[in-house]
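Hi V.,

You were right to ask for the full record rather than a summary. Here it is.
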Amino acid sequence: MPLEKMQQVLTDKLEEMKEDGTLKGDELVITGIKDPEGGNAPRYYVKGEEGGFLKMNSNSYLGLHLNSEVVEAEEKASEIFGSGPGAVRFIHGTYEPHVELEEKLADFHGKESCMIYSSAYATMTGIIQPLTSKETLILSDELNHNCIINGIRMAKPKGKGIFDHLDNDDLDAKLSEAVGEYDRVIVITDGVFSMRGDYPDLQELVSTVKKYDSEFQDGVFTIMDDSHGVGAYGETGRGTSEITGEDDIDLIVATMGKALGVNGGYVVTKSRIIDYLRETSPFYIYSNPITAPEASAAIKSLEIIESDEGRDMLSHLREMTNYFEKGLKDIGHKVIEGPHPVVPLMVGDTKKTRDLVEYLKDNKVLATAIVYPVVPRGDESIRFQICADHTTDDLDYVLETIDSFE
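Predicted structure:
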């Protein structure tokens, strides 16, 4: 058979990944969800496991994926529009909820226009290449997400540079060195860095970029992926722009698959940029959009976030984040503090990190180990993600379980 040789090659590769510690292995399969009761968050049933699990690694920061109004909005839209779009956007795959969602997302961010994609990953990889000329330099934070890294690779700019993590002085130096060498510069950063929960000083970053804009023929502009920020922090859920008091990032990319609890990604920016991307972005032109029911569910999620109910969710999320951070410190653990509900417990040892995550799983708590070689030795951690449906009872149980680990 033609694939016999290839199977052996890939088997060897998988063994190498296992030895290196990068093999993710079998996935847990969720078979059902138990509704909240008795002051506890929902519990998740896992194939082959007894009892329900508390998820401490969910991206659904507001718990909207289980919100009855969001679910109902999707169900009602499916009765009207069916289960899928049946085509890409320009071949009659654009439905009314797509257009309404784009308008609401643009308004939410205070930008002129919006364009939705099948995912935030597709969004980022889909916008960098069309915005890159043959005389472009792209500067990227050293800890940026994989979608940014691959988007830059696909764009094949004239120059690529990495500036030190959250270091605007290093960004300034690299912009200074680029003067006279390029026509255009794109500066790209994550909003929230998902492994750490930290974020850039956007006021300083934007100020640095504006200082050099006149030095380049096509200018310098910024792109931020705030997929973990939007809907997860800020008084009104507007993410890193709100937290830093800077709303002048040129293009904001985010997801609807995290705090909004649905699916898909989007970019918001100037109208003319969106017009151009609709004509040139391959991941938009040649891929189906999210479904009309998904778009309707996302619209409902935005409505909730903008309501008093949403403000209460965000307030509770902040309280639970602070509670858990303090709890970890009180039992003698080091964390990366911050307002974002990603709370990394810094363990500093690969084996101990894996053992603690397994111990948590044995005690019905799901968490994520971040270990070498994904991070340098000494930076191993457990990434906990607080959600608005967590309660102090839930978090006390997790803290007690961690404290009992030997």
